[in-house]
Every structure is written in structure tokens, then in C-alpha cells.
Amino acid sequence: MRIGLFIPCYIDQLYPGVGIATYELLKKLGCDVDYPENQTCCGQPMANSGFAHLTRGCDKNFISNFKDYDYIVGPSGSCVLHVKDHLNSTTEVQACQKIKHNIYELTEFLTDILEVKALKSKFPHKVGLHNSCHGQRGLGLSSMTERNLPAFSKVEMLLNQVEGLKIERPKRNDECCGFGGTFCVFEEAVSVKMGKDRIAEHEQNDVEYITGGDVSCLMHLEGILKRQGSKVKTIHIAEILNHD
């Protein structure tokens, strides 16, 4: 299988190590991975603000970059979900539908397509797990507490394979961190308060790191942690799974 590596723009600009870790991890697992160098923003910020009709240029570029791959994999649940839900084309309908069907968030790809059962990763630390809303409620990466269904978590399935890692869950296991894309700009006070509440529960568990599958959420929490002078750090799950 040929995999196109989808690295969202904010990861490329601010957290390139996450993109590198994702690439290295997929290569370690035997995947044939390409990084299309002409990729840009997927258009999610515009769509989140009610201007999905202005993403046509982003859609056209995304299709041009990724239409020939068997799978597209990205380390960001929110961006992957945006492509699944909003990618559109009036001229390349078949290619568009193929991409929407074959794009996967990283942990989803590892569990559902590669069916990874044993990793050689080591990360001897106490880690708090943050379930991002887009991954959980949009992509179904984990169960939701408000639904009376058997509990599951694709993220935890992978973290449980990491030697030395101890997972700690906050009391409200699937509460939003408050980032919400442009929400953190338009409703700054509410966003920060939600983030502080999330961090307080993780700090009660005395964790060393907070991890998750969305850099956007981790970036939001990292900013609050630094302003509070906390010793807790954030780390994307790709960086943990790629850690020897």
C-alpha cells in the first residue's frame, strides 16, 4: 500500500517533530510513505467559521496531492474529520470520494488497518490521556461516557503496548479542553477556563505528560500549562509510539 502523509499546516509550522515522528513510526511498521510537498491547509479554519464555500482552492489542492494514494494518514483527528466531512469537488468527484473513504487519523490507521498488536516503544512515564472531541465524537476513536455502550479506546490500545508507560485518566474522561478551533479566539475566556479545568484534573493525578491525538488540543493545554508554571508537559501520541 502507498500512503500519503497528511501533515496539517499548524503541525508543519509549529510542531514539525510530530510530523517527523508520524513518518518514522509508519516506516518502522513497514509502510511505504510519501510526503506530498505541495500540500497546504485543508481548509478547516474557514469551515469552522462558517465559510466552507471559500475552501475550494484548498479542496482542489488536497485532491491534487493525495488522489493517487491507497491511504492518507494524518496525526490530527480534527483535520482528518474535516476532509471526511467537507472535501468537495464538482470536477473530480470520483477522486474526492476515494480520498474521503481512504483518509485515516493515525491511531485509527494503526488499529483498524495495520492492526498493530505489539510495539517496540518505551516511555517510562506517568501520562494523562486527553480525548479530543473530533477524534472521539467524530471519528469514533473511543467510547463516550454519555452513551450506555461497552467502553473502548483505540488510543489506549496503542499506549498499553508501550513499555513503562502508565496511563492516568481524568475524572471527566471525555470533557472538551476548550480549544475548539476558532472558538478559542471568539470565546477566549470560556476556552481558557475549560482548559484550566482539564489541566486541574490531570495535575490531581500527578502526571508528567498529557498526550492525545490532536496537536491543536495539546497546543491549547500547553499554553495554559506554561503560563501557570506547571512542570507537566504535553506530547503527541505519535512521539510516544515512536519513542525507543
TrEMBL record:
This is (Fe-S)-binding protein. Residues 4-83, 127-221 form the Cysteine-rich domain. InterPro entries: Cys_rich_dom (IPR004017). Coiled coil: none annotated.
